[in-house]
Amino acid sequence: MDRPVDIVYTWCDAADEKWAAKKDAVARSCGLPADSKANAACRFAAGEDLKFSLRSAEECAPWIRRVFLVVDDDAALPAWLDSENPKLRVVRHSEIIPARYLPTFDSSCIEHHLAHIPGLSERFLCANDDTMFYRKVEPSFFYAPDGFPYCRYAGKPRPADWKPANPYESRLRRALDLVLARHPHPCRQLRSAAVRYPHHNIDAYLKSDMLATFDLYSSEIEKTLGCHFRSKDTVQRAVYYYEALASGRGHYRLARRAVGVKRSWIRSLLRPAYAESLQFVRKRWATGLDELRQWRPGLFCFNDTLEITDEDRAGLVKVYGELFPDKSSFERRGDRR
Question: Counting beta carbons within 10 angstroms of the beta carbon of residue 57, is it exposed (0 to 12), middle (13 to 18) or buried (19 or more)?
Answer without folding.
Answer: buried
